[in-house]
Design a protein that fits this description.
It comes from Microcebus murinus (Gray mouse lemur). The protein is built from 12 helices and 23 strands. By secondary structure, it is of the alpha/beta class.
Length: about 575
């Protein structure tokens, strides 16, 4: 009787066992009630599937602990995703040892500490010897386990964003402790100091400690031999010159400034020289280039030069504004917008490449839309001002891309049915397309939406945007939006990456003649505009690839400014071949 009851409550487990599946995803309606009935833990039957390589259980507000038997029952597990649940304050029993685990995602839970016996696994021998990626963002961690480096010695990526950490354990930066760590993100914490021993992270390439309480940056940071990208914005540094440089300068210049200070020139010519060199470099890049005079760079000719011109709100006679209503605070509170003019999507596969670039950003930087979601709109179909709010699923109506008008509740249900059909046809738990993101809405009473001045929903993040504002080959002016449930900084970082990618694509379009562009007649038929002289919108003066980026203000319902993008601190890490004119 008991076995029959388990099979009835968890049909996915019986199916996975019968079909010898290597992947299992548990999410969607009904999961929360079943986990609650199991005592807030995963059912023991789950840990009798030794062939599993991938296990995901997400969006379950009643899951407080994985339950005993995971380590013993799933020895071949490569990826364990337990995000957006209620795990905490610790893990009892501890997760490891999991000898084959490479990816562990515990983001969006309620973890406060990971002490021995209630953490990730033993330190001797290492409980997670093959772990490469660990995501602990969006928890309540006050401290990290001192033996983390010994538990996971091959760690390459560590995300600690959005916790309550005030320091890193000393052992974390010991020589040889984490020789492969290349990405460290600990933004939106309470960090008060950064040890000079961070120089021992020999493989570190990316460091994000933005929005903390740091007052100094150790000069030894410049000794990290592979460091390419740093973010310390939002910290109140004692060195105001350095604080300003963090918003305006490239990583290379900042590291040189730190080196100069360590050589004893912090108050003299060394640091001033580094700052002046950076200032001169920027003036050269921004200076109009005439007849190949001063400011020309020998490595990058005039043709195909990437230019981004920022149009400030004060320069725009009709700036677009996004108003934010209070309901999104508990759903998806962060949004950033921007307008980009001058894209050329007509030649060949330009539009296809643009859409593929968005997909790649969603997979990588946006962490499969869990960190942030982008949406791109044809500006000429967007009627402002816009309202970013939240509505009950039965009240949110949208015409999704490639589908008929539907209420969000109906759309989500339809996507769930399609996902189940995909699983049956492919005989595996993974799904594709929009179906992969349905779990991000689990447990939400209201869904986020962006509404235009006509009252039409043009975006339903993180799922889809509207057919009304769909990008076409003839689109040259775009409205971009990035939303996130985790932080405003990730919205800005994603927007930076998207705009810089658009600039690179325009350069490629300008330099490569492709066949397959729309004829004038075809373009007119699509756009509904009369014929006229047609020019390449990507080509600026002297054959340069020019995009204009217009600032978009995000305000509350009373008109108080929440964020404007791009600000002076945004688009600050552009590549050397990209010139940002402000």
């Amino acid at each position: 009787m008991a076995a029959a009851a388990v099979s009835e409550a968890w049909p996915e487990l019986e199916l996975a066992e019968r079909e010898r599946r290597r992947e299992l995803l548990l999410t969607g309606p009904g999961l929360e009630e079943r986990v609650r009935a199991a005592g807030g833990r995963l059912p023991p039957r789950l840990f009798t599937l030794p062939l599993l390589h991938y296990l995901e259980v997400s969006g379950c507000g009643s899951l407080r602990a994985p339950g005993p038997g995971l380590a013993q029952g799933l020895p071949q597990l490569h990826s364990l995703v337990l995000r957006c649940n209620a795990l905490g304050p610790g893990l009892s029993p501890e997760l490891g040892p999991l000898p084959a685990l490479r990816v562990l995602d515990l983001s969006g839970n309620a973890l406060e500490a990971l002490p021995p016996g209630q953490g990730l696994g033993p330190a001797e021998p290492p409980g997670l010897p093959q772990l490469q990626s660990l995501n602990l963002s969006g928890n309540r961690l006050r401290e990290l386990p001192a033996d983390l480096a010994r538990c996971a010695p091959r760690l390459q990526s560590l995300n600690l964003t959005g916790n309550c950490l005030d320091s890193f354990p000393a052992a974390f930066f010991s020589p040889g402790a984490l020789p492969l760590l290349s990405e460290l993100a600990a933004a939106d914490n309470c960090l008060r100091e950064l040890s000079p021993d961070i120089a021992h992270l020999a493989s570190l390439k990316t460091l994000d400690l933005s929005n903390n309480q740091l007052s100094e940056i150790p000069a030894e940071l410049a000794d990290c031999p592979k460091l390419k990208e740093i973010n310390f914005r939002g910290n109140k540094l004692r060195d105001k010159r350095l604080e300003k440089m963090l918003g305006d300068c490239q990583t290379r210049s900042i590291l040189e400034y730190l080196r100069a200070g360590r050589r004893g020139c912090g108050k003299g010519r060394g640091r001033e020289g580094a700052e002046k060199d950076e200032s001169r470099r920027k003036r050269r890049e921004r200076k109009p280039r005439r007849d190949g005079g001063e400011g020309a760079e020998p490595d990058t000719g005039d043709v195909g030069r990437l230019l981004l011109r920022v149009l400030h709100v004060s320069e725009n006679p009709a700036p677009l504004t996004v108003r934010v209503s209070p309901e999104v605070r508990d759903v998806r509170p962060y949004i950033v917008g921007a307008i980009v003019r001058g894209m050329d999507l007509q030649p060949g596969n330009a539009l296809k490449r643009f859409l593929a670039a968005q997909t790649k950003l969603h997979e990588d930087l946006c962490e499969k839309r869990t960190a942030a979601t982008m949406a791109t709109h044809d500006l000429h179909t967007v009627k402002g001002p816009l309202l970013y709010g939240a509505r009950p699923p039965q009240d949110l109506k949208i015409v999704p891309l490639g589908r008929r008008e539907a209420k969000a509740k109906e759309l989500v249900r339809q996507l769930q049915l399609e996902a189940e059909e995909q699983r049956k046809q492919k005989k595996r738990q993974s799904v594709s397309g929009l179906h992969r993101y349905l779990h991000l809405l689990d447990g939400k009473e209201n869904f986020p939406c962006l509404v235009d001045a006509d009252g039409d929903v043009i975006s339903f993040p993180p799922i889809t945007n509207s057919e009304k504002t769909k990008i076409k080959k003839t689109t040259s002016d775009l409205f971009l939006e990035v939303t996130s449930a985790t932080s405003l900084q990730i919205c800005k970082d994603v927007m930076d990456a998207l705009i810089l990618k658009m600039a690179e694509m325009n350069k490629f379009t300008l330099e490569n003649k492709e066949e397959g562009a729309l004829s004038d007649t075809e373009a007119d038929a699509v756009s509904g505009q009369p014929s006229g002289p047609r020019t390449n919108p990507a080509a600026g003066k002297d054959g340069q690839s020019l995009l204009v980026v217009e600032q978009v203000r995000v305000v509350d319902l009373e008109g108080g400014l929440r964020v404007v993008y791009p600000s002076k601190a945004d688009l600050a890490t552009a590549a050397p071949h990209v010139t940002v004119v402000r």
